[in-house]
Amino acid sequence: MLTGLLHKCRQSLDATADVLNIGGSLRRLVAEEKSSVARTRRSRQRIKMMRKRRGSSVDGGEKQHPSSTKEKKSRTAGRQSKVSAPEETTESTFSTLVREAGVTLSHSSASNVIAVDQVVFQKRIKQKLQKSPGYPSILKEFIAGLESHIEDADRFRNCLLPCVPRMADADSRCISSFQESLLRMLLGIEILQTLIINMLLEKLPEYMLSSADDAGLSIPRVIINQLKWLDRVVESKELAAKLMELLSVAPVDVQRDIISSLPEILEDSQHNDIARELNSLLKKNTQLTVAILDALSSLNLSSSLLTEVRGAIMTTLAAVQLEDLPVVVKFILHSISPSDAYEVVSSLRKKLELEDCVLPPVMQASQSRLKSRGSTTFNLTTATTGSQDVITLIVDAIKSAVRFQKTISEAWLKAIESVEEVEDHKVIDLLVLFILHSTNANQSRRGAEKLLKIKVRSGLISEPLLQKTFKDNKQVLQGYFFSILALAQSLLRSSDPCVVPFAGHMYRHSFTSFDTYCQQEVVGSLVTHVCSGVRVEVDMALELLCNLVTELPAEIGPYAVFVKGILDYLDNLTPQQIRRLFHLLSRLAFGPQQGSHIQDDMHIVIRKQLSSTVPKYKRIGIIGGVMIIGSMGALVPKCKDTPNSSLPPETFRQLSSLLELVQSSSETSPEAAALYCDELANLIQTSTLDPQVQEKISQRVLDVFQGDFVVDLGPEISGSFPFPARVMYDLDEDESQGGIAINLMPLLANDMFSRAEQHSRAKDNKSSLCLSPFFRLLRFCEEKQNQGDLEEIDALLGCPLILTDMDVVEKIDSLSKVEREFICTLLFHTINWFREVVNAFCKIKDKEMKMKVMTRLQNITYLQTLLEKALAGTPGYVPPVANFDGETTDVILPSTTAPVNKTKKDGTGKKRKTPGKNSSEGSSQMEDKIEEETQQEPEKEKEKEKEARQGVNLASYRPFFRELDLEMLSVLQCGLQARSTLDSELNTKERQEVLLGPSELVYLLEDMLRKVEFRLTASSAKRVPFLKARADKSIGFSHLQQKSPKDIASFCIQMLPALCSHLESCHNHLQSLLSNNDGIVDGPGIDAQEHQLISSCYQLLLKVFNSILSWSGFSHPNHRGLLKKALQVFAGRLKDGEDELNLELLVKHSFNYLLNFRSTVPNLSSALSLSQLLTTVSEKGGNAPAYREQTASLARSFLNQSWVTISGEKQRGTKFNEALHAVLSTYLEHVDDVLKAVEEIANEGFPQIINASKDESSSSWPTLSRQTFVVFYKVLMAELEKSVRKIPSGKISDNSEAQSLKLLTWNLAVRDFHILVNLVKVFDSRPVLNVCLKYGRLFLESFLKLGMPLLDCSFKRHKEDVQSLLKTFQLSTRQLHHMCGHSKIHQDTSLTNHVPALKKSLELFVYRVKAMLTLNNCQEAFWMGNLKNRNLKGEEILSQRTEESEEEEEEQLAPQIQAEEEEQDSDAEAKSEGAKGDSSDEDQTDD
Question: Which pLDDT does position 1450 carry in this prediction?
Fold first, then answer.
């Protein structure tokens, strides 16, 4: 080939001598063309059209032959063009045969003309060659003539281009308008094909280095195209070998052309060989990746070779050029088989780094700096756009694959699901989930949504990954906007609060990344969420809208009209949500980007709400008005251009007018005035107002407060009051006379007299309701004006109150109803005043002020004990409102004396209905049960009467107390001092060191626990049922809701050292008591009340720790530092000086520190709290199996402990049973072998209490007695049913060992179930029967679903094991059948509700056993008999109906089972059938 190439080059050099003869040759060619046109019979118009199409190039060639020569030189890239030789006088064999066959050769740039159809042409050439006398030597002459003809570049080009048909009109319908090129037609002649192919391949190197001509024609590509789609290739192997040889020397462009044409040139038999060579070429030259993959995609390859090729491509994936990556991904995905889909997709996911496809920030920064350099900037910009295009093409390739191949979509889901580390997740994971959701191919939408929720809930897909995905792929993601929006909506509506914040991030990034249309959809969707009525959904949507208004006011401004529509749904919003909404709207209307078009609407809404006489709408108007005042009067930060940053006069005038309007509207009622004070106080606390506005609000607050609520102390207190007035709780008695006092009782008396006389209180703020709210407003005004200093009002901390002697509470029963209610209201106001005072002065560092704060806490705890007694003697009393932003009807008040009366009535009056028409066999059981219940009822009655005498529980009245600020809990940093450890000297020391007493510690811990549980502990988002009222749990947390969960968690972590100190103090106190009394809890000399308070502190501290560590926010990467800081506190109490510890060690040390408190747990409820806390800590990381074992051991030790009260009695009651239930569940959930643990308790513990007395406990399990049997029984049944659901179902592919292991597990479970069911014969109370029926059905359903498939496939291998299992199980199901009959006879609704479903499962079990026997060809072992209804004792039940209606079918099993039953009529038949050894059926009742 190289010799031929050199020969051609030499001829090309020789031909340059004839350049001057080009002009004459072209003239002769033009003359021949004109004569041929004249001989045709076409119309004149067609002649003109032909000349117009072809004559221009000919004329140009005549006139400008020098330039033509230059063009040829440039076209051949330095190679001298071939110049046509002088025209020969004698015509060659090639020219003659071609002309006679019907093709007129063109000697210029015009195309060859064909006069016949190409098939006719090929037939004529073939016939002429074969009939020639010189055949086959004429073939060489023909080829030689062809070679001579195409020596000229133009003529060669003409032969490569299609021929132009030209013939008479009469024959035009016989020829196609498109004809192949001359060389293509000659290649279709088999006798010439090989020679012409060799000639073309020898000709090809001459044009390898030449660029495309002016018309964009590439000669090498056209030559290759001649070989494509031939009807038959005579010597295909030789052709393939020559093409591959040519590939080794050709330039890259020609290589691409050759490779991409191989599938159209080669036969199928050569595909595998060529694929191997292409695969090896791919490893050497990555520039040919796209062409090779395109070719391989079109080749018919074997599966093994395809796997080999795909593996080679995967290894070089990292080295593939960026623009080639989409083709590579497409090839990989489209070459996947179902068997290896998961493996290939997982490997592709690991190696596909879309993050590398985006320009790094350094290049983006350099791009902005190089904008002045045109070419460089253009290249970088092109690179940026190109990277986005590449990612788009990759995503499209994945989308195409998952849409049409179910296995690929499933493989992607499985590959993403298998990732178990946060750092292992990539951008491609989120993109694929969006793709699967958008295509919904093979129902993948639900799978993608479910997987995203799981990943977000577990914290594996986090907000930083989402942010990175949006930041780098905005263009790609916009195509999947509606899927992103749908996923965000689904996550925001989820009942799992852990995934709701992620939905908020999706909304925020969608708004900031996409165009205006998408932004409008985002705002519309958020508005829909706000109007949904679901609290979590509404809160998150409002928070997002507020953040968008704060961060992007200009972008969200155009959509204010959508947000304004929420005003129509104000009735469904809580006060805190209304605050956020009006804050949002007022920022849009009056913020920096003022929306004047909604300002008027806002004013109209506020005026309308304020003028309403309905309290609810007036509250909305006050809240909204104050929020607008805050937005209008916000302090404008100073700028360089605008040194004067004060409010414009017009704005200040409008603000003053609105402030006066809200103030005047709120003076119509004390509740509205109090709400106005609270809202203004919140505004001043949380906002930075302009000094003019701050002065406007604060100018009269102090004067009004002194005039309305403070009086000077005199010798006598004038006025008419229900009780004698007395100055109480003065902490400044040592100071000079002439102090001040809070005029509380006179104000309250005035309120009551005014209501009694129905006087109007318009324009009068002198109400006891306004005392605490007005003081809160005064406090914040003073803090703002004096930079946090409250010196001007610090006298209010110690000043007394005008009250009455509280000894009157002891004789509350002798007072009238009005007087009792007056005392209760006075106590509520006093406590609320002290709570606000403590809120105000808790942060002052002065020791004297701290002592006063501590004294006020003691006053609060003492007054609450008085209030409990007063409320117990005042039934039907409604306390005064303390939190004014909610409905008073939202608070559900308890009935104080109703339970006592009900208890007395139940104890002395009618008892539970007993069966009267039933047979005698059930009477003894019911009598035992009634006797047991009658023994328990007097005890319950005594407990309730005792509680009623002591007072009511104030937990139900918390909404009527003022909210304690979060900062007030800083008082917990003071130490704990118990009364029993004080003497006179230490008591003085206590006064000096400011120590907390147990009562005050309990009071503060209870408040902290409520706050932490409300704000940090996740609660599911449940929709409010239609027409069903529910108490608003947010009442009393208005101030807390204005703080973020992160801020609250940070504050709690700061308090952890003090809380640990309190826990250690409680531990030491209890330990000293135990050591002083030789380990006896109820020893002599123990203060019962103090011990109860210390125990309460102990449990509250454990609950607070558990609630803090249970915050779902710790799973967020940004909050991991907070978690480590919290665990560092616990670990530091055990290991001092170790600051830098990883999370695993911190968890270990924290677990061991908390485990040390197990020895002094005072009661079972505290033991449960400790177990739960240790479980929470162990879930944060570390060695999970070791923690499970320790937790199980701890729970077992609690179960093996005898719990007694301080009086020596055993702990009992509802709370004790609930704690016992939870501790036992914790033990069984953490133990290694649940079935073994259940069997241990059932075989050891239960038999010990069968014949025991009522109060006697089991020796091996001290917490187990006849009274707690129901608790143990329920937990064992529930955990047994839960454990069998985890047993894998049997498969045919399982080996014998696996089947034996599963059968053994089921045998243990069925044996435990049999033991528990048979206990019903001894413990036959209704609760036990209820538990057995419920969990018996669930166990049976699990056996049908998971156990029977195992028996199907293991029956032949393990026949005896299967038979034994079914025999044992039949005994249990027969007992269940007897329980169904017992329930019907006694007509107990709570029991009969379980019967239909249980009977259905029993019937299914019968037919399932029959199916199993049939499957194993043992159907002859199955037969039916009759079963009689029996009671729990096995005695036959006789009813009023005839026996034939009571008889039911049953399954009889092996003779061993029949010997144990009383089915005498069927004994012989059962034995004959049981001899076959295969019978395993269940008796059943068809009722």
Answer: 41
